[in-house]
Amino acid sequence: MEAFALLASEVAPELASESEGFGLSFDLLESNLVNLIIVIGVLIYFGRGFLGKKLAERRAEIEAAIKEAEARQKKASASLAEQQQKLQQAQNQAKQIRAEAETNAKSAREAILQQAAKDVERMKAAAQQDMSSQEDRVMRELRQRVSAMAMERVETRLSDVLNDEIQNKLIDQSIALIGDR
To answer: Which ranges does the record mark as transmembrane (predicted)?
Structure first.
């Protein structure tokens, strides 16, 4: 029982303070519905002009930002389309340059092959001419050697075959032939 008496003595002063009169309680956890309605009403009444002005300014800022974003989006779209067109032109030009390069490479290759064929023919002709001149030179040298060797053999045999008596006979015959003329 003593515990009940102790609890009653602690709660009694709080109950007494609540029943003393009318007042606003700013403790939101303990406030009642009436206090909340009064606070909201005061905020609406005094804050309506300020809040309305701020909301209108914010709305205007948002609308301006949206218009600016739309303008930037249109500008970016136009720039993108222009850049895509330039890219397409560049790709077409690259294809054209590549085709011209391939054509030039083929014609250069053909020209090089033709020039190489001409050079081969010229080198063959030069080699043939060089071989002919080498052959002529070798033939001349062989003739000279054969002539020299024949002369050496004839001289060697003549000195063996021709003695003084035969030489005198030849000289006499040569003189007789010259005298008969």
So the answer is: 32-51
Question: In this predicted model, what pLDDT tens digit does every residue of 30-46 receive, in sequence order?
Answer: 657 777 788 788 888 87
For residues 32 and 22, the answer to whether their CB atoms sit within 8 Å is no
Residue 92 lies in a domain: yes
What is each CA distance from 121 to 110, 113, 116, 127, in whole angstroms?
Answer: 16, 12, 9, 10
87 vs 105: CA distance, rounded Å: 26
Tens digit of each residue's pLDDT (9 = 90 or more) over 5-28: 444 444 444 444 445 566 665 665
In a domain, 177, yes or no: no
Tell me the residue range of the domain where 76 lies. 32-161
Domain-located, residue 16: no
Distance between CA atoms of residues 64 and 69, nearest Å: 8
Amino acid code (one letter) for 177: L
What sign does the dihedral 82-87-92-97 (CA atoms) show?
A: positive
SS3 of residue 19 by DSSP? coil
Q: Are 40 and 51 a contacting pair, CB within 8 Å? A: no
Q: Is 83 contained in some domain?
A: yes
pTM over 0.85: no
pLDDT of residue 11: 42
